[in-house]
Design a protein that fits this description.
By secondary structure, the protein is mostly beta strands. 0% of the residues lie in helices and 43% in strands.
């Protein structure tokens, strides 16, 4: 069975590959898990640690609250507020926000959380922002 991942990223199996029969794979919280049955019938799970990228595009036409399934949020018209989810519990999660329209977009952190020390940031036409959770607040990267 050919791998879709470069060999350098593939996890090492404890035994030679011909000692396993692949059963299924699953993805949860961006971790790919591959389940194998060893020829001696012992079930093994290999958690690869590979991040499976599912970058999504969203183009809201009004105020919008980002969820962890979003990646790129682009506004093409109007002035609106986009609200970030809480930074707690999603350390390392990134979002990109782009204002392609003529209005202004206010990026609002959740509650008292901040974006580089501010409760809000404003994007004018053609501005973009890439932000990442540090587990407590949002940082512009």
């Amino acid at each position: 069975m050919a791998s879709k991942f470069p060999r350098a990223q593939a996890p090492a199996l404890p035994e030679p590959a011909n000692q396993y029969s692949p059963l299924w794979a699953s993805k949860f919280n961006n971790i790919l898990r591959i389940y194998f049955r060893q020829l001696d019938s012992e079930l093994r799970r290999i958690s690869t640690g590979l991040v499976v990228s599912e970058k999504t595009y969203t183009a809201p036409t009004g105020n919008y609250t980002i969820t962890t399934t979003n990646y790129l949020v682009e506004y093409t018209t109007g002035s609106f507020t986009v609200t970030l989810p809480t930074a707690a519990g999603i350390q390392g999660h990134e979002f990109q926000i782009k204002n392609s329209g003529t209005g202004s977009i206010t990026v609002d952190a959740d509650g008292t959380e901040t974006i580089d020390g501010s409760l809000t940031k404003t994007l004018v036409q053609y501005d973009a922002m890439k932000i990442m959770s540090n587990g407590i607040n949002w940082i512009i990267v």
